[in-house]
Amino acid sequence: MTAGKINWTKISAKPDPQHGAPCSRSSHGLSISPDGSRVFLYGGEHVARTPLEPSQSLWSCDCENNEWSWRNLSAAIGSSAPSPRVAHAQAIVNDRVYIFGGRSGISMNESPLNDLWALDTSDGVGNEKWVGPIEPSTSSSSDEPPEHRSFHKMISVGTDLYVFGGCGSSGRLNDLHKFDTIHQTWSNLGKAHLLKGRGGANLIYLKDGHCLIVVAGFVGSESNDGQKFILSTEEEEKGTWDDSLLEGLDNLRPRSVCISASFHHDDAATDDNVALIFGGEVNPSELGHEGAGGFENDLILLDGKTGALKETIKAAEEKNWPEPRGWSDGTSISTADKGRSLYLFGGLTGDDQNPKRLDDFWCCDIKM
């Protein structure tokens, strides 16, 4: 693949008539509806380590006739909502946007969370509502929920949610948990025994490999290692961690707090599937989360079956391309008629002297 097959478009969405557009932010979540018509933005920080005011926390960007428009959902929903937070994890299952954890305090060990909520969008535009906190089933088959954490990762595979790693009260974590949204049960899938605990890792589903992969993250320094979790089979009901590190990542520049995605919808072409990582922090800040380290805006292509590095595509100077960033979030969709697209919003750029939070909205179309 060459950069010519990567097309970035900056989306200029119409503001909400009453509430304008979302403020700049980092450490937020972004999810796209299964039909690609709505993107949901939740949470984050406009000031370092300080959760956004509730009036700014929840937005949708809706597409009609190829025009995007912002809607402030917080005002319509009112007070029945999750507590303000930064560094939660977010994923969508059908018409529900799930959020898990994060923290509502300023310091890393202050007010960490492990609550699970869902934004129910099934009644259509203007009728969204929060459901939660969602309590696990009292069935004996349910494990305990994951411990309180922030800067973790959550993705959906079918009707299941997977939560990995992050920063807990006792330090960085390397555990994996599954939540069955149908039966509302948690399953503890164990630790990635070959990986150090980490925040800001990439957790990616590889449909062709019937596995999840953890790639990179912050372990006290930026990392570029990874490990595979093989999903459940008839022989191994819960699935199992592979007994070796992922191969083919030696030339990946170490990084954390990236945007990552894969394309695996059933109606998408599967002849050349890839997973993506965009940007991230490649040099940690001397001020920790209060500052801004060194950032990238390259696009990393990983093999859709093995997770090995295929290509690193640098920003094309002559084209529109998002500026370097970390602490952002993105969401992807792949359909037979629309192809493969990655959306991203906001994040943190700049440096320790001039950190800058962003409010830009981009779409990357990938031609295979």
UniProtKB/TrEMBL annotation:
For this UniProt record, give its keywords in alphabetical order, as a comma-separated list. Iron, Repeat
Any idea which GO molecular function terms this record carries?
Answer: enzyme regulator activity
- Which GO terms of type biological process are on file? glucosinolate metabolic process
Q: Does the keyword Transcription regulation apply?
A: no
Q: Which InterPro entries match?
A: Kelch-typ_b-propeller
Q: Where is this region: Disordered?
A: 1-30
The cross-references to SUPFAM superfamilies, in alphabetical order and at most eight, read:
Kelch motif
Q: Which ranges form a coiled coil?
A: none
Source species, domain of life: Eukaryota
What this protein is called in its record is Uncharacterized protein
Q: Which GO terms describe its cellular component?
A: cytosol
Q: Output the Pfam families linked to this UniProt entry.
A: Kelch_KLHDC2_KLHL20_DRC7
